[in-house]
Structure formats: C-alpha cells, structure tokens
C-alpha cells in the first residue's frame, strides 16, 4: 500500500511540476497561470499536448523546441523531477496518516515554486503564498475531521502565529535584513509545521537560519558573494521547513523534545 502511494504521489508530482514551471515563469511577470497555453519563447509556437508530457517530452525532443530547435532550459525537467521526488518523500513521511498528505503536497509544491522565484527575482510572491494558505487551511481542517484530531488543528493555528510573529519581530527591528515576504512565508510554514507540533515550527525556522548562515558564509569565504550582496532567504526558509517535515521527528526525539 505504501509503495503504491509513493508511486502515485511521484507521478502526480511530475504533473504538478509541469504546472509549477508555468507558475515560476509567469507569476513574477504578473501573467495568468491558466491561459494562454504554453508557447516556445523563441518562435511563439503553441506547444502541442505531446510536447507537454512532463519529463518525457523534454527527453524525446532532446531539450529543444520541435519547431525552431531553440534550446529548452534544463530547469523545466529538473523542476518536474524534483517535484516528483519531493512528493514521493512526503508520501513516505505521511504513509501512516494519508488524510493530511494532500495538505503537505500543496505545501511542498508551493515551497519549490517560491524558492525558485525568490532565487531569480528576490521576491516571495503573494500570488503563491496566499493561494497556498487558502488551500492548506481547508485541507488541514478536513484532515482533522477525518482523523478526529482537533489538537493538531489547534497546533496549526498556534504554529502560524508563532512563525509569523518571530520573523515579524526581526522585520520590525531590521526591515532591510528581513523582508515582509519572508514573514508571510514563515507564517505559512508555521501553519503546516504547527500541525505536527510547535517543536517542528522552531526546528524549521532554526534550520532555515542555519542553512542560510552556512551557505552565505561559504559564498563570502569563496568570494563568490560579498557582505553587501543580497542573498534571498525564502529558499532557506523553505528548505528548513521541508527538512523539519521530513526529518523533524527523529531530530527532536534525539534532542529529547
């Protein structure tokens, strides 16, 4: 049963990854993610269904447009494959609590999209954060009803408040050091991690700051970046949150929390 769930989640992740490519490209440009259909940026040809099959089409076309042979960025299959792997890992994590799995799949997809947008454009888009929260909340409520687990739902509310408040304080003290988009993202992460427990919220934020510090200091040490260069924090928050979801239980248990 677990193996079937993992395979289904991975296949679903490929399809979602294809949609995320549209979101990542269009949201920063304030374009609709629904229409028009995807087109080649080189020749403007609308992509046929056979050229929109996740991962497979890119491999068959050898990474080029069928019409003009313009190279297609490897980011597209990488996002599709990455989403599939992430969904499979989440399916393993929540194999014993499938009722809440859809909520965490929504979270995982959103965090992947937000991370790539922030890396390229230095923004955490409200057009991803708010729809994710509006999807996440009813899915958690539904999971609470199915599992008869109102305590986890209460934890989600408290976790959202905790994550938002902690980063809001940093933003209030130093707005240049912490953007408000990161504050909203911390609130979103807090809702999901709070479902697990408040320890996961604190762990996720800690891992986000830890990985950001390690990577930033490494880049500065290698002189790839200077202290004055901006480094987006959203991807590190997302990574910390996902690590807390996937590995939080053994880590917290090891620390006796």
Task: Provide a descriptive summary of the structure in words.
It is a single chain. This protein has two domains: 91 residues, no CATH class; 161 residues, no CATH class. Helix 1 packs parallel to helix 4 and helix 7 packs across helix 8. It is globular, with a radius of gyration of 19 Å. The chain has nine helices and no strands.
List keywords for this structure.
about 260 residues; mainly alpha; 2 domains; 9 helices
**Strand percentage, roughly?**
under 5%
The class by helix and strand makeup works out as mainly alpha
Report the mean per-residue pLDDT as an integer: 92
Roughly how much helix do the residues carry, as a percent range? 55-70%
Quaternary organisation of the protein chains: single chain
**Mass-distribution shape:** globular
- The radius of gyration over CA amounts to 19 Å
Biggest sheet record: none
The SSE order reads HHHHHHHHH
- How far from one another are the termini? 31 Å
Quick rundown:
This protein is mainly α and 257 residues long. Helices cover 69% and strands 0% of the residues. α4 (101-121) packs across α9 (234-254).
Secondary structure elements and their pairing?
Elements: H1 2-26, H2 56-60, H3 75-93, H4 101-121, H5 126-147, H6 150-173, H7 180-196, H8 198-221, H9 234-254
């Amino acid at each position: 049963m677990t193996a079937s769930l993992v395979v289904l989640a991975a296949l679903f992740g490929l399809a979602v990854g294809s949609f995320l490519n549209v979101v990542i490209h269009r949201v920063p440009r304030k374009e609709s993610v629904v229409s028009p259909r995807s087109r080649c940026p080189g020749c403007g040809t609308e992509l046929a269904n056979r050229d929109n099959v996740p991962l497979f089409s890119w491999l068959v076309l050898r990474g080029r447009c069928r019409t003009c042979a313009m190279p297609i960025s490897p980011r597209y299959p990488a996002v599709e494959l990455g989403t599939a792997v992430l969904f499979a890992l989440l399916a393993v994590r929540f194999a014993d609590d499938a009722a809440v799995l859809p909520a965490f799949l929504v979270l995982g997809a959103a965090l992947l999209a937000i991370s790539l947008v922030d890396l390229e454009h230095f923004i955490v888009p409200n057009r991803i954060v708010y729809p994710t929260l509006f999807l996440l909340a009813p899915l958690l409520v539904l999971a609470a009803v199915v599992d008869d687990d109102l305590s986890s739902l209460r934890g989600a509310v408290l976790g959202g408040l905790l994550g938002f408040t902690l980063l809001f304080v940093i933003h209030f003290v130093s707005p240049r050091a912490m953007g408000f988009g990161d504050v909203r993202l911390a609130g979103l992460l807090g809702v999901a991690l709070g479902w697990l427990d408040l320890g996961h919220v604190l762990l996720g934020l800690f891992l986000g700051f830890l990985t950001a510090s390690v990577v930033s200091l490494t880049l500065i040490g290698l002189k790839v970046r200077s202290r004055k260069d901006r480094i987006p924090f959203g991807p590190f928050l997302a990574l910390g949150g996902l690590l807390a979801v996937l590995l939080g239980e053994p880590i917290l248990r090891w620390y006796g929390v």
